[in-house]
């Protein structure tokens, strides 16, 4: 009888971590009135000696370059010594006339390469920086115009506007009630929908004047703003 021996050979491959690891390690929010926010990019690793890493970014978010902040390069170079280095760059806000709570800059590391051709891993998780608005200090919403209407048509209109040259950065809803001096009632009209859309300075809203078939003198309506939602940074006159 012959004995046959089988030998099983298992080949293992060594796996080593990259020489460098790059991540966004810090950020600072800012306000339109402040000098600016910032991002900090940090390099860690096991390499020795000096090197330079070129890091490429992608930018997204509700903040628009040139409108909310000064555009910055989407590539930086970080000097590295014995595997470590960091770079902090500013995000400088633009003092605009857009009324909003805040705008967001989402920064992600897209890729990174080393001058030495060492291997590099990156953390591509987006980091959000907020640019808070300060226009609410001077912004007022008020009624700025109206046209008369007739029972059965044409409709009346009323205009609500932001002060100066401000525009809405988000939808602003305006609630209004009858004020002193009003002689009409809620059965005489379909109330206006007062909504200033994003990107707009004002709203011209229709007031449907109902035909109640009653012979009467001209009726008056005075509106007073009672509440603002969606643009809670605004004030009323």
Plain-language structure description:
The structure is a single chain. By secondary structure, the chain is mainly beta. 0% of the residues lie in helices and 48% in strands. It is built from no helices and 19 strands. The protein has strands at residues 20-28, 30-31, 37-45, 50-60, 75-81, 85-91, 98-99, 102-114, 120-122, 127-132, 140-147, 156-162, 167-168, 172-178, 189-190, 195-196, 202-209, 223-229, 235-236. The chain has a five-stranded mixed sheet with strand order 2-10-8-4-5, with no helix packed on it. Strand 11 and strand 12 form a beta hairpin.
The secondary-structure element order is: EEEEEEEEEEEEEEEEEEE
What is the structural class?
Answer: mainly beta
Report, as a whole number of angstroms, the end-to-end distance. 108 Å
Helix content: under 10%
Oligomer: single chain
Q: For the report, how would you describe the main beta sheet?
A: 5 strands, mixed
Q: What is the topology, as strand order, of the major beta sheet? A: 2-10-8-4-5
Unreliable residue stretches: 1-16
For the CA atoms, what is the radius of gyration?
Answer: 31 Å
Mean pLDDT: 89
> How many distinct beta strands?
19
Helical run tally: 0
Overall geometric form = rod-shaped
The fraction of residues in strands falls at over 45%
């Amino acid at each position: 009888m012959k004995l046959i021996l089988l030998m099983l050979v298992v080949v293992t491959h060594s796996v080593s971590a990259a020489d460098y690891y790059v991540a966004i390690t810090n950020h600072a929010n800012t306000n339109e009135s402040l000098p600016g926010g910032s991002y900090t990019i940090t390099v860690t690793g096991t390499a020795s000696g000096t090197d330079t890493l070129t890091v490429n970014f992608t930018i997204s978010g509700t903040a628009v370059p040139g409108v909310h902040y000064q555009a910055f390069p989407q590539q930086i170079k970080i000097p590295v010594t014995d595997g470590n280095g960091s770079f902090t760059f500013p995000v400088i806000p633009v003092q605009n006339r857009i009324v909003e709570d805040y705008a967001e800059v989402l920064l992600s590391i897209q890729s990174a390469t080393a001058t030495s051709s060492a291997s590099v891993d990156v953390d591509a998780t987006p980091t959000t920086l907020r640019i808070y608005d300060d226009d609410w200090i001077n912004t007022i919403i008020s009624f700025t115009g109206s046209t008369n209407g007739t029972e059965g048509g044409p409709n009346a209109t009323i205009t609500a506007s932001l002060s100066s040259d401000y525009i809405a950065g988000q939808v602003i809803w305006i609630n209004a009630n009858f004020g002193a001096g009003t002689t009409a009632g809620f059965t005489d009209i379909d109330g206006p929908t007062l909504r200033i859309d994003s990107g707009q300075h004002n709203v011209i809203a229709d007031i449907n004047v109902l035909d109640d078939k009653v012979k009467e003198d001209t009726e008056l309506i005075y509106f007073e703003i009672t509440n603002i939602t969606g643009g809670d940074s605004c004030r009323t006159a």
